[in-house]
Write a structure and sequence with these properties.
535 residues, alpha+beta, 3 domains, six-stranded antiparallel β-sheet, Beta-Lactamase, rod-shaped, single chain, Heat Shock Protein 90
Length: 535
């Protein structure tokens, strides 16, 4: 087969094109490699042919006319390794004169080595020197091109098939997403679909909270955790994705100017917007781990989650409104009951002292008449608070608790009492400022009016495992008996002769309107301590 050989190159070329049809009909890569070896021998007339792929400890034989399939060759520094590394073909006319040749047997004297894309290498060897020429090399390269095209077609069909299967599974998940009742359930389902269907082991969702991202969902492998703020400085490519509405596919984050990866291990990433809510992210430690198909699937999942989130939001608002209306009706019922019963007593007292004052002109009678009027005015004011219809938290905002407590103290008659605030100044809660003011005013006034002066009142942090989960209002007074603590928040409950019994009921109402909890316990100094759990 040398340069002066008698083989009809045109005939071989024609037969090679016919063989390409068999290659393209292959359904798996193994068949492609086997067909390539057979074609090299029967069509091109090569003596001994093999196809190799990379293995962990060398190069594996995947098809061969003379080597055992599955065996692994360790030929560091040889022609085979050079072909893989450089991606270039080579023709060795005499292996004994080559410093880089590493034939599998000393009987082989000449050879051809041709890459099949970047996945495999086709080699042909002969026991005769100068058995192959440039024409043979070019025909081998053409065979390798056909083999690579066949493999690409198989991979494409497999990718399309897998994409269809994943899309079908995502459509199945869409039904589950549509039935989610809470955001937590929704994000849990999204995490499961991301890992199980999309194959994203390292994924997360960032949502905007007070104009900054907070992690709402994170996989176990993710470097961020739910509740964390991944970008303290506020700058990130994720923010660009949310604002532009365009997905981002990053082959290598180290090459992106202005990127702020959440881990030094991150090399490739994708980010897709989740409606106007936030951004869904996936990352990998290897560059180029994601492609356009991954982005398409991520967008499909994120779109479904965005729609479900909006629906859940609307349902929760309706549910809150329903609860607010139910509470409003309860408050109106209490108002009617109080008007017909509780105010009757101070009204009767006022009428009696009015008659006495008119008859006798006794100054003490006038004073008691004024006291009865003041009591009724206070009861009406507090009843109006209880029946107000603006307890909705749609306008809630971050409120600095320490500052709010001091402002409330300035509006309370303190009678020489002292306020101590130990809460961090930067601590905030998302609250309705007006309702929170009434909570503090009632609790602070309760501490002053139910204890002998001077009393010290402390507003501090309610800590759980080292994290602030709310705040407390405590005094160093006489404390509250156990039986009174059990009924302290009931409507009309009071231990003061001139009390209305509405103050703590108002506090509980406003606290629960925020979704918080309140408890009355014994303070460290033996006084009353009201603990408000925010998270």
């Amino acid at each position: 087969m040398g340069e002066d050989g008698s083989t009809d190159e045109i005939g071989r070329l024609r037969e090679l094109h016919h063989a390409a049809t068999d290659l393209m009909a292959s359904t798996d890569t193994t068949t492609v490699y086997e067909t390539a070896v057979t074609t090299a021998e029967t069509v091109l007339g090569f003596d001994f042919c093999s196809v190799f792929v990379r293995a962990a400890d060398g190069y594996e034989v995947v098809a061969s006319s003379h080597l055992e399939t599955g065996s692994v060759l360790d030929v560091a520094g040889g022609v085979l390794e050079a072909t893989f590394e450089r991606g270039e073909s080579s023709l060795t006319r005499d292996l004994t004169h080559s410093s880089t040749a590493a034939p599998t047997s000393d009987v082989f004297r000449s050879g051809i080595s041709v890459p099949i894309g970047d996945r495999a290498v086709l080699q042909a060897v002969s026991r005769t020197p100068n058995a192959y020429d440039r024409t043979d090399l070019e025909l081998a390269e053409l065979l390798a091109i056909h083999a690579e095209a066949a493999i690409d077609a198989i991979r494409s069909r497999e990718t399309i098939g897998e994409q269809k299967r994943r899309i079908a599974r995502l459509h199945d998940v869409a039904t589950e997403i549509g039935s989610c009742r809470t955001h937590e359930e929704l994000f849990g389902l999204m995490r499961d679909a991301s890992e199980r269907i999309l194959g994203f082991d390292w994924c997360s969702v960032y949502v905007l909270d007070d104009d900054r991202f907070v992690v709402a969902m994170a996989s176990e492998a993710s470097p961020v955790a739910v509740g964390e703020r991944p970008f303290p400085e506020g700058k990130s490519k994720a923010r660009d994705v949310l604002e532009s509405g365009d997905s981002l596919l990053v082959e290598d984050v180290t090459e992106i100017e202005g990127a702020h990866p959440t881990s030094d291990r991150m090399r490739s990433a994708l980010s897709v917007p989740v409606g106007d809510l936030g951004v869904f992210n996936a990352a990998h430690e290897e560059p180029g781990a994601f492609d356009a198909a991954d982005v398409e699937l991520a967008e499909l999942l994120a779109g479904g989650v965005a729609e479900a989130y909006v629906r859940i939001d609307a349902q929760e608002r309706l549910h809150r409104r329903k609860r607010e209306l139910e509470r409003q009706n309860e408050r109106l019922d209490r108002f009617a009951s109080t008007i017909s019963h509780d105010i009757r007593n101070p009204l009767s007292v006022a009428i009696g002292y009015a008659d006495l004052a008119a008859t006798t002109g006794d100054p003490d009678a006038f004073e008691r008449l004024h006291a009865a009027h003041d009591r009724m005015a206070t009861m009406v004011e507090e009843l109006l608070l209880l029946t107000r219809n603006d307890l909705s938290l749609d306008d809630a905002e971050p409120v600095p608790v320490a500052k709010h407590a001091r402002a409330a103290w300035a509006r309370v008659r303190t009678d020489g009492a002292e306020l101590v605030v130990t809460l961090p100044e930067e601590y905030t809660v998302r609250a309705h400022p007006g309702l929170l003011s009434h909570v503090f005013e009632n609790l602070l006034d309760n501490a002053v009016t139910h204890n002998d002066s001077p009393v010290a009142v402390t507003v501090g942090a309610l800590e759980v495992q080292g994290s602030i989960r709310g705040f407390f209002v405590a005094d160093d007074g006489d404390g509250v008996p156990p039986d009174v603590r059990e009924t302290a928040f009931e409507h009309g409950s009071t231990t003061a002769a001139d009390g209305t019994g509405f103050g703590l009921s108002i506090v509980e109402e406003f606290v629960e309107a925020h979704g918080w909890t309140i408890a009355l316990v014994v303070g460290t100094d033996g006084g009353a301590r009201f603990e408000i759990g925010v998270e």
